[in-house]
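FAQ
Q: What does a multi-component entry look like?
A: The components come first, one per line:
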Amino acid sequence: MILNPLNPRFKIFSKMLFPLLFFAIFLLQMENLLAQTEIEAKISKGAIKYIEAVDIAVIDFTPKDSTFTSQITQVVKDDLNYSLYFRVAKIDTFVMTILGNDLYNMDGWYQLGVQYLLDGSIQVEEGKLKATLNLADVLRKKVIRTFEVKGEVGNLRALAHAIADEVVLDFTGQKGIFSTQIAYVNWTGGNKEIYLCDYDGYNHRPLTKDLSLNLSPVWSPTGVQLIYTSYKRHNVDLWIMDMNTKQSKIFTSFPGLNSAAAWSSTGENIAVTLTKDGNAEIYIVNTEGKVIRRLTFGRAIDSSPTWSPNGKEIAFTSDRSGYPQIFVMDTDGANVRRLTYVDDQADSPCWSPRGDRIAFVIRSGMRFNVYTMDVTGENLNRLTFEGSNENPHWSPDGLHIVFSSNRTGKYQVYTMNWDGANQKMLTREEENYNPSWSPRF
Amino acid sequence: MRKASVLLAGILILLLFTFCAKKPVVKEETKPPVSQEEKTTPAENPQEGTQQVTQEDLQPVYFDFDKYDLRSGDREILNLNAVVLKDNPTVKIRIEGNCDERGTVEYNLALGERRASAARDYLINLGIDSDRISIISYGKEKPKYSGHNEESWSKNRRDDFIIVSQ
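Then the predicted structure of the entire assembly, as tokens:
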């Protein structure tokens, strides 16, 4: 909050920085110092609390002596912990003592503060995996739901993710995000290809293989299509891929830049950045790539549109203020408001699917960091502190953010919770960046 | 405050090391933007109409961070590039705008295109037919120099003038 220039404490804060800054200029390494000082200032993490986690115990699925089932159980536990809706109880010797070595001792679990119990069995039926799960309420000492999940024999992780998706569905009314995918750009030093991986960083695979520069993948709201920027026809065009057939075709190919696509939540409209009229402006096109209307005018660069989930507003980056800042407008281009007032540069907005926050980046010296703010531009919350961190994109439940960071010396894709906790590296080979989180399928 | 100064000292020592370690590694791969040599090359061309234009005859121009306006030295380079183009009226070029690695993919794509347009507009003003010039932005996606320092960045903020047909 101190970072918000509207806050009177910002002045005091910046005064404190002044002598340090002068010193740093002499040393030509201002930004490193600034980053350190900011960490020292212990910027508060914001006061939002989305959910209260529920305590659940997951009992090893049967057959118990199988490495397959223990692997599935482990993935389900990891997923549930990741979801933030659950805290999965550790089952250690202390717990077993309390339970009197009986994993179904409901009084014991109640004593341990556990509210729900999940167990299940895995069978092979007609060449497919079939999982039967039971969810029990510890207090009421009864099974409240039994459900079945099917999967392919060769893909244990997918079966586990589907089980965890169902558990979250049961508690929240919406499926979990464990079967979602992350599209990102892989860079081997020359070409850039779009890759996919599971939300937890497993199962990396290439989507494009055309030895060109392919950038900025964005999913349609159903996940059936992916729009990306490509140089394969020697112009900067938008291409659209059918995710079932993996076939791509041109989406828009106006003279100049065709980039920065964003789907509205209904899937009917797509906001894009085009330079066909001489300067980077935001337009709305339909699913055929035909321009419906132009939203921005003037000499500034207007780019990186992102829709509010209710489809009424679009946040975007513009340098109309001299250097890039985040603005918001209605979807007819009217009612433009400036959201950020940062000294350096604010860019890369992504509207949370919950509607209440916008993730974006602020540059300070050589580095960028991921922040979130209210849709009014208030209550800034800094989420990253190491290396340069760019391109934040929300998970479909609005509780996690995927982004890229060069904190290890190379750009890699990471995920973190909405408040910056649990930062986890998903990619390791070569360099990877520009990620986009799929919707639930 | 004490904690801060200890940290500061630590950072300084680290920085000293990184500076010492990094400097010698940097390789000079291009000539500085304006050199004596470049000024003489185009002057040789007019008499020899049959001689093909080479890529070296068209020199790149460089930009300041987050800027797309032409510096005065760059205008001189563009004047010379215009002479080459006028003397070889069949030559078509593509101006490729590039940025350093700082900034987002999308913003840099737009910035790179502005840099390319700035040079194109200048050449058109000097009388070069607009049909002979196409532009493309590579943003920060095709860095010629891979270093993560101002040495590389300043050389990556660049317009290249690529001959597409003679």
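Q: Is there any commentary attached?
A: Sometimes. For this entry: Chain B has five helices and four strands.
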